[in-house]
Amino acid sequence: MSARIGFAGLTHLGICSATATAAHGFQTVGYDADVGLVANLAAGEPPILEPGLRETMAANTHLLRFTADISHLRDCDVIYLALDVRTDDAGNSDLAPLRELIGKVAGVARPQASIVILSQVPPGFTRAYAAADARFIYQVETLIFGRAMERALRPERFIVGCAEPAAQLPAPYAALLRAFGCPILPMRFESAELAKISINMCLVASVGVANTMAELCEGVGADWSEIVPALKLDARIGPKAYLAPGLGIAGGNLERDLSTVVRLSGEHGTDCGIVKAWIANSTHRRDWALRRLAETVLEKPGELVIGVLGLAYKEDTASTKNSPSVALIRNLRPVPLQAYDPAVKVDSAWHPQISGAASALAACDGAAAVVIMTPWREFRDLDPATMARRMSGKVLIDPYRVLDPAACRAAGLAYHTLGRPAEAA
Predict the structure, then answer these.
(1) What CATH class is the domain 287-416?
(2) What residue ranges do the domains of the chain occupy?
(3) Could you read off the pLDDT of 390-401 as tens digits, one per residue?
(4) I need a surface site. Which of 38, 50, 188, 330 has the fewest CB within 10 A?
(5) Strands of 78-81's sheet, edge to edge?
């Protein structure tokens, strides 16, 4: 008989992880104290946007059960603590809800059950619990908003923090990991906790290179998109490197790790100058679209309206955590705005003169400039000529190169994108 797996904390991480576990053939119980949330999940209505999530839930209803009764975790062989750890604007983690949940789960879990902390925590967190309770294990989460189900169903590897890395993992937990068919890397608690942060540091470094060099391309007349293929053919960098220039770091997770490294460096007297430089570069890049608007339309006389396409911090998610789009909107007071996003509703607290448009094209109506701040797939189908006819001006700011530059020029639009010089109408 296969192990019964529990998940405590049905946030983004918990919902996707529980669904993927059921999809691999395990009886899975998802617990959360929120009765309304549990009812919606039981009805196949998750509160998050993730490609493939609803379909995977529907295909595995016979193995996946949601409950608001924590005692239902008592029959589980492995219980994951899968609460999203919230961060503030400075990247500091609020661990209090996780600590509270850990106390509740430890109180109902069977003595022989494994309690696995899947939530992201700072180095030293898990050992403090394991010192008093040998049931505790740490596992690095692989959540990426917009690709959460893909990553949960087909992880690249499992990084496991434990008290004795050379010892065998508890049999039910080991059987669960083996079912996913990927490498299992046991290591000491602190190494696993720091491994997650180290991975994100490498991603930040790649983003920093892309942003720095793409901005240089804009000044010297080069095109970053022509350079990227050469880098991806270099085995030392690779085809999956984070080389797309963007508008700074957003979403909360990378910011949290940058903040954690700065804090730990201060505590231990190590150098973190490069990390502080990444933070400064991220802030600089976030305001790229604002600088383009200032150069093209904001300093010109007369009333104007700006259209904003995309509010989420990236495509395939409804999260606006540290969203460059929201930051732009807040900096555009008192200019009237028309905004549209397929997954996020406009919040009047962001801007006193913002209105929600019914569609992407509606957001273009009468706009002196349009800014595509989130590279949603549906925006790729927009016709630049139709956009130009509905706009009052001719400025199109497209950081992520969602639309074809040649088609935009042919439509008479002044086209601005990351990594290449601006092109006049």
Answers:
(1) alpha beta
(2) 4-187, 197-284, 287-416
(3) 999 999 999 999
(4) 330
(5) 64-67, 27-31, 4-8, 78-81, 114-117, 136-139, 158-162, 184-188
